[in-house]
Amino acid sequence: MKKVKIQTCYSTSLVLLLMLLFLLTQVSFAAQEDKPADTSRPPADLKITSDKMIASKDHSMVEFIGKVKAVRADSVLLADSVKVFFHTSETKKEGQSNVKRILATGNVEYTEGERKAFSDQADYDTADQILVLTGDQARLLTGKSWITGKKITLFKAQDRVVVESSEKTRVEAFFDAEDQNGSLDKP
What are φ and ψ of residue 57, in 5° steps? Predict the structure, then answer.
C-alpha cells in the first residue's frame, strides 16, 4: 500500500514538473516582440521570479504571485501578480509571439531603458504593442520629466502616448528643459 502511494505521488509530481517546464519554456522563448527578426542580436530571454506560480492549461495562462520580478533585456517589471496569457495553436499566426498578453496587478513598476512607469495595473498586448497603465495616479517618468493620469496608453510601435484623467483628478505633466535637450526653448 505504501509503495503504491509513493509511486502515485512520484507520477503526479513528474506530470506537474513536465507541465511547468513546458510552460516556462514557452515563456522564455515567447518573449520576442512581433517585429521582424533582428539577426544581429540573439533573442532576449524572459526570467520571472515569484513566491508562487499557478499554471492553467485550460486558459492558456500562467500566473506568478508574490513579489514578482520579470526581467527581459533592459526591461524590468515588478508587481504583486503577473499573468502571462499564451496563444493557442488555433489563435497563433505565423511569426507571432507565443505570448498573447501580459497583465500585471498591484504595485506595478515597469522600467525600460530610461522610461519608468508606476500604476495599479499594467496590461500589455504583444501583437499591437500597446501598454495600458491604470490606477489612481498612474505615472510615467523619463529623466526628470513626468506625466500622471487615471489611464496612460503607450502605443509602442507608433511611439505615441495618450493620457486620460478621471472625474476627480486632471492630467498633470512636468517637462524638464534639460530632458528635452533644449527643444522647449525653440519654437
Answer: -65, -35
